[in-house]
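call fold(seq) -> tokens
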Amino acid sequence: MNIAITAHDRRKELMIQFCIAYCGILARHSLSATSTTGQLVAEATGLPVELYLPGVQGGVQQIGARITYNELDLVLYFSDPNGDEASTRSIVEISRLCDQYNIPFASNIATAEVLIHGLRRGDLDWRDIVNPKK
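ret:
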């Protein structure tokens, strides 16, 4: 499965810790991320991560485009509920696209853990029907 990860600045460390904890599960999937988050996760876990632009320079839009083209199966976007207006807009944009295209989405660690355990159990295998591997 194709998993996109990103996090607001105040949540990057949490995303890194999450990816370290679930490295064994994430290693069986393709990861992509905005540049800073992706670099930090790759350094901490050793996992290969396809990097997009920084979030504020178009990386969030790149994730949005991949959602629209049905190229993502899961999005983990740890948001900062106390963030500025621009970061609030980006999380709303991505969550709306995930809703529109039926992509599982987590904006916090609690939901991300539920989804990652579901991924491990095969609960998200229905995505292979929607997005068959070539």
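The domain at 2-127 is CATH 3.40.50.1380 (Rossmann fold).
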